[in-house]
Amino acid sequence: MVRSVCNVPLIASGGAGAMEHFAEAYKKTNVDGALAASVFHKQVINIGELKQYLKQQDVEVRL
């Protein structure tokens, strides 16, 4: 719904606790980006591994 009225890049923020949550955000909501902090600071998710996972899920990422 937001995407239909949003003319600027749409970024999902907050709530991700697993790599699957990022893939779900991209696939179900058509966002331009996703951000997180605590999962990276607490080393719950490794950024490099997340990028590889998203690529495997057919989500466009910069490696």
UniProtKB/TrEMBL annotation:
Gene3D superfamilies tied to this protein: Aldolase class I
One Pfam entry name: His_biosynth
Record InterPro entries: Aldolase_TIM, His_biosynth, IGPS_HisA/HisF, RibuloseP-bd_barrel
Molecular functions per Gene Ontology: imidazoleglycerol-phosphate synthase activity; lyase activity
Key word Amino-acid biosynthesis present: yes
Key words, A-Z: Amino-acid biosynthesis, Histidine biosynthesis, Lyase
Pathway membership, UniProt: Amino-acid biosynthesis
Recorded family membership: Belongs to the HisA/HisF family.
Name of the protein: Imidazole glycerol phosphate synthase subunit HisF
Organism: Vibrio syngnathi
Lineage: Bacteria, Pseudomonadati, Pseudomonadota, Gammaproteobacteria, Vibrionales
Gene: hisF_2
